[in-house]
Amino acid sequence: MGSLASPHLSRRGCGNVALLPSSCWLYYLYNHWMIQAATYFFIFLNLSLAVFEEPAVYPLPFLATSLIEVLCLLVFSVRLMHFAKVTPRNIFWKDTKNICVMVAILMSLTDLAVYGTLRIYNVRSIRWSRIVRPIFLINFAESRQIRRAFRSIRNTFPEITYVFLLFMFSVLMFSLMALKLFGERNLQTAEGLPYFTNYLEIVFDLYVLVTTANSPDVMMPAFDFSWWYALFFITYVIINTYIFMSVFLAVVYNNYRKHLKNEIRKLAYMKRRKMVEAFNLLKEEEGAEFVVREAQWKQLVKLVAPDISNSHRELLLHISDDEQKGFIDKKSFVRLADLLNIQVITLKIRRHPLGQWLPHIYNSAASQFLRGMVRHRGFVWTYDVIILINAVFIALDEESPYISYAEWVFLALYIIEILLKVYTYEPRTFFGKNQFWNWFDTLIIFAALTATILNTTLKSTTEYNSQQILDIVFILRVLRLIRIVDSIQRFRVIMNTLINIVPTMLTFGGLTLVVYYVFAIIGMELFQGKIQFFPANSNAPHALECGNPALKDSMFARAKYCKNNFNNFASSFIVLLELTVVNQWHVFANGFANVTVQPAKLYFIAFHIVMVIIIVNIFVSFILEAFFVEYSVEKSEVETAIEQKIQELGMGIQEEELQDEKLLDNMESAEHDLEGEGGTKPPAKGLVFKIASKPMFFYSPTYMLRCRLVSSIETLSWWLRSCC
Amino acid sequence: MGSLASPHLSRRGCGNVALLPSSCWLYYLYNHWMIQAATYFFIFLNLSLAVFEEPAVYPLPFLATSLIEVLCLLVFSVRLMHFAKVTPRNIFWKDTKNICVMVAILMSLTDLAVYGTLRIYNVRSIRWSRIVRPIFLINFAESRQIRRAFRSIRNTFPEITYVFLLFMFSVLMFSLMALKLFGERNLQTAEGLPYFTNYLEIVFDLYVLVTTANSPDVMMPAFDFSWWYALFFITYVIINTYIFMSVFLAVVYNNYRKHLKNEIRKLAYMKRRKMVEAFNLLKEEEGAEFVVREAQWKQLVKLVAPDISNSHRELLLHISDDEQKGFIDKKSFVRLADLLNIQVITLKIRRHPLGQWLPHIYNSAASQFLRGMVRHRGFVWTYDVIILINAVFIALDEESPYISYAEWVFLALYIIEILLKVYTYEPRTFFGKNQFWNWFDTLIIFAALTATILNTTLKSTTEYNSQQILDIVFILRVLRLIRIVDSIQRFRVIMNTLINIVPTMLTFGGLTLVVYYVFAIIGMELFQGKIQFFPANSNAPHALECGNPALKDSMFARAKYCKNNFNNFASSFIVLLELTVVNQWHVFANGFANVTVQPAKLYFIAFHIVMVIIIVNIFVSFILEAFFVEYSVEKSEVETAIEQKIQELGMGIQEEELQDEKLLDNMESAEHDLEGEGGTKPPAKGLVFKIASKPMFFYSPTYMLRCRLVSSIETLSWWLRSCC
After folding, report:
1. Between B722 and B526, the higher pLDDT residue
2. Which of A11, A71, A523, A631 is deepest in the core (most CB within 10 A)?
3. Which helix (H) or strand (E) holds B649?
4. What is the pLDDT of residue B609?
5. Confidence band (pLDDT; 50, 70, 90) for A661?
6. Complex confidence, ipTM
7. Which of B501, B582, B571 is nearest to B529 (CA)?
8. CA-to-CA distance for B198 and B602, rounded, in angstroms?
9. Major location, coarse class (chains A, B) (predicted)?
10. Exposure string (b/e) for B304-316, b if CB count within 10 Å is 16 or more?
11. Are A684 and A649 in contact (CB under 8 A)?
12. Which runs of E-coded beta strand occur in A505-633?
């Protein structure tokens, strides 16, 4: 419910025509992208305070950070009040989201005041309110995706709890068996400690075994004692690691799909209702039925989607007003939201600027030959070979001067390639919005060029080799090699899928950020300063035991993990990342429990449950679903309608041609046809359309756009009639 | 094609009526369960030779093992010839399965002869033909499931290869970057070795990082040097561990589903065709249409499914001959295979034997009270509490005499519980086929009783505490606690799903066996005897380095992994299992590469790719699919038809009643009704039916049964007409 605030809002904004224009203005202001960007800026500013507060990565005085925090809280309060102004009172107060934000603001202020006061009297207390900061990220209206992910987790909760209890029961049972079987054998671990004598330690060890982190080690003493005891651990691993962990994934994935379906259904219903409302506001009588006039429809589309081209709008009109009657009936009107949601790429066939300015030279035989060469398949292959040779050169020793000269040769070759391509293909098309790889190539090459020149200049002038710049040069040099992937069709398909899912992966980035933030703050309070990192040649006492005698002879110190500590926010993040990867997490848990108290292990277990069992599984579910959608290439009804119309108008491109990356070639030849003897099917108006590849994932931000679009359509249709 | 041999077969056996009865007899013999069991016995005998051959767990002379092998190969040849007899020549020779088996037999014999001859002249050679042994397991007609799994893997292959190449490309690129970034920094690992200086070693280290096995360790030197280098590893882990590994799962899962659908479609088509053929053999004219007479139909069902009850058969007849016309039309006849495939449980409402023999005592007030008590929910709760107290007692120290007395008390309590239950509920129903938990309880309790008595007797007579028996007693004691799971409804549902998927998991057991067998044989040839295990107090030279000076200061020796070696078949299996669990596999790889040659690591990488990337992912896919099927409770059309008929006949049980586990109670009360005042809806004939829980997974052995059933229906319908 909470996530659908803007529809509530727009219902008031438009259903009630007696509304004042000032509230109309307030509403635009609230949704203005600059205001939204500013809100996000303050949210991230507030979150980033953890970097500057004690224990700080870059220390700032308490006064500075607290002033910034008060400023942020003030901004949040103003934003919330603004939202209250444009929302009916009862809806505003029913929304838990708003209550949450209010409570969080109050808590933060109180905590800040208490902490500040105590600080004056030199009493050290805990800044506990820092863990509520992610609430602002979650609960402001724009973070729908993260909220949706959290709701999905909440829905999964009951089911996963039962499986988890059963799983824990199994772990406890096996621990009991292990205690009885191995407890009185006087066995020793590889470190010479008693083996499996304490029930709670066995439970912990076997829990760790589920994550496979202590896999053969935990079994070795029993296995050394007798063959047959290996069977105990094999059974345990099969039941708990393989079966139960898969069941967790199954439960999470199943709930994720179910939840997704429900959300989509709700949104589709909401969309239809809003579109009908919009239609009712704009409708005029035409014969027996109500319709929307073409002029009004065009004005509406212009307002709702200002960034689409005129020709695209004409195309949509052609589809909506199929029989060219000059008006749009209800059924077609309602479909508008879907139509707008489909990415139609307008490809303008332009002449090459050089062909316009210097037609003689550009169309000369030599130029034609050159362009033909660049368009040839062999050109791509030649450069693939060059990339491979380059890879060998990169791997070779850097010291030899010949190799550093070779680097210049390669850079020059790549630059020549880009120039040739721009010469051959139309530059604006070459750098079109959807030409990801062209952009990627050009950026990498020019960044490498800049960095290499900078590095050489620095070296020759100051005799000083900047390590940072050199590192960047190295990375850029290697990144250039990625291009070879692009020349193999099957790889390109997989890469495109991966690139397509990046936006939604950012949602998981947000989710991870929230979880990490909370655990990092708690971790810093618990373990701050307990473990210190000293450089390798340090003479500090206990440098080898991470500055803490309690770690003497521990796995933690022996593996040299001292830099993995909770001494500041950045370190904590890296530790949490290592815990997410799971391996060796028991070494961390034991290490930190040794320097504090044994129950500190619970912190690590809790993190494992939240992050690995729930969030990583949701991430995997998401990737699974994304790939399944990608594999099932079904076009929606609306897309088919658009495509049909594109074909009817003779402005389409065959999919096959596109797939062979002959798009640019095709356009070129079309141009040739126009210039020369006149082709067989010259596209009208020098325009072609194509539907953007496969259907976007319906849960991607694109889908969300549809919902927002709908509410703005309604608002704007009302505005068309009343405000203007 | 290969898997559908029996339909081919039956087509000849039945389509061609001119066939001789002797071939009919041969066919029955071929499919006789004892012959099939014998074949399996020889397959496993042949496989198990690896345990007795050098390097042996239990050594047998070469002559003995080779004689057994020749015997097995002889049996396989006879079986194959038998199959050739009952199969048309062209079909037999087209089937790659048969060719495979023949080639395997020839190869094994040749190898055995060569090895034996060389052995006489004391030349040591390799018994390479041992790796073809699993071919017999895969390629004999009965292992359809394993073959299907292998086919599924083969189909996944092209797709997964592309993803794998892209993934390897990414690993190689990152390795190149790592070489450039860290190679010349003179960093050292925790063991003091040079860090990231050799390209191939970097590739291996980063491949290991994908499996997370060396997770923080590989990053620590760079991280200690500078914060920012952690970003390199974080990016690497996100791209390669999280994204690519999920993509592998997605590809495998997607192909698994696609393949499954195709197989099902093929089988369904085959089934229909066979049923129509059977109908054509049995049909008689009745008015305008062809039909099968009721008598013939009954005879057929009796022959095809001899194990179903008369009442069940009547039920099927009611469904097939809906209007009681005395014959079955084509449509209903074709459905027979589906009908037979659905498990209908016939529940007979019987009087308690004591109620028949001693009605006075059994129906007395005291007895009624007792039975009422047992049936009460409180009875279950009481025993749940007893189990919990028992758990505490098990965890407590064994030495105290009071606690060992308590053990007797608990045993007595559990036995009383079972006796009371048998007294209250009808014994044959209590120990019914589907009463898994009742069987489980009773077996565990009586095994524990036997073992405890045996242990006590041994202790009091010989003063000797047998460790094996004590271990078994401990395990049984803990297993008793599982019962508590059964009293919570939600847990029971999850447990039942898990129990349901056990049969299909056995297929994966077979698959794993094949892969392990091949790798174990290769591993033994490569690493046999290179690493030795010595007991903790051994004085042997290099006991701490596993008997090999090359392992001095290695992680392998320090972690005391010496018992993880390839010195015999059983050890190899355990090592492979540890490699499947993945953790620390790089320690194994490095250890075994140190004692042989560096390229030996390829063996471990190959195993990781085959076992973890492919087979474990198929296993996960299978569990995901099984749970999804379990969650989507849709009944098939045929099941609905059966249920309708059961309800019509007034012999159904409400699902809800069943779900509350009131089944037994319900039946009891029905009995009461019959005895007493006459219930509201007494079931006719004292019979009730229910459809066995949810639909079985359509890829489970049950489904396969359907296919076999079909071919036998056809054969038998032909037999009905011609043989008899």
Report:
1. B526
2. A523
3. none
4. 93
5. very low
6. 0.84
7. B571
8. 17
9. membrane
10. bbeebeeebbebb
11. yes
12. none
Residue A18's pLDDT is: 39
* Chain B residues within 8 A of A592 when measuring between CB atoms: none
Interface test with A, best of B493, B532, B574 (most A CBs within 10 A): B574
Q: Residue A536: its chain B contacts at CB < 8 A?
A: 188, 224
Asked if A581 and A213 touch (Cβ cutoff 8 Å), the reply is: no
Our measurement of the distance from residue B271's CA atom to the centroid of its chain's CA atoms, rounded to an integer in Å, reads: 26
Choosing among B210, B565, B584, which should be mutated to test the A contact, i.e. which has the most A CBs within 10 A? B584
Question: Hey, are the CB atoms on B237 and A624 less than 8 Å from each other?
Answer: no
On the question of pLDDT at B499 being above 90, the answer is: no
Q: Which of B58, B156, B166, B537 to mutate to test the interface with A (most CBs of A within 10 A)?
A: B166
Task: Note the pTM of the prediction, 2 decimals.
Answer: 0.83
DSSP codes of every residue in A419-436 = HHHHHHS-HHHHT-TT-H
pLDDT tens-digit series, residues B583-622: 899 999 999 999 999 899 999 999 999 999 989 998 888 8
Confidence of residue B669 (pLDDT cuts 50, 70, 90): very low
Cβ <8 Å between B216 and A166:
no
Distance separating alpha carbons of residues B495 and A163, to the nearest angstrom = 10
Low-confidence winner among A98-107, A114-123, B143-152, B661-670 (lowest mean pLDDT): B661-670
Q: Which amino acid is at A258?
A: K
For residues B39 and B354, which has the higher predicted lDDT (pLDDT)? B39
Residue of A nearest to B394 (CA): A176
Which residue did the predictor score with more confidence, B132 or A85? B132
A-B contacts (CB, under 8 Å): 206
A452, A490, A544: best to mutate for the B interface, most B CBs within 10 A: A490
Distance between A262 CA and the closest CA of chain B, angstroms: 16
In terms of DSSP bridges, do strands A284-286 and A289-293 run parallel, antiparallel, or are they unpaired? antiparallel
pLDDT digits (tens, 9 = 90+) for B683-706: 444 455 555 544 333 333 333 334
Whether residue B345 has pLDDT greater than 50? yes
| Furthest C-alpha separation in chain A | 96
DSSP tag of A550: G
The alpha helices in B190-309, defined as continuous H runs, are 199-210, 215-225, 229-236, 245-282, 294-304
Min Cα distance A122 → chain B (Å) is 33
Quick one: CA dihedral A304, A306, A307, A308, positive or negative? Answer: positive
Q: Looking at beta carbons, which residues of chain B come within 8 Å of A243?
A: 498, 623
Q: Is B718 exposed, middle or buried (0-12, 13-18, 19+ CB in 10 A)?
A: buried
Instruction: Determine, for residues B215 and A564 on separate chains, whether the beta-carbon distance falls below 8 Å.
Output: no
Does A254 contact B631 at a Cβ distance shorter than 8 Å?
Answer: yes
Question: pLDDT digit string (tens) for B334-344?
Answer: 877 777 766 66
User: Percent of chain B, pLDDT > 90?
Assistant: 23
Radius of gyration of chain B (CA): 32
Q: Note the pLDDT of residue B19.
A: 43
- Which residues of chain A lie closer than 8 angstroms to B471, CB-CB? 181
Residue A308, Cα to own-chain centre: how many angstroms?
25
Assess whether pLDDT exceeds 70 at residue A63: yes
Nearest CA in chain A to B490: A162
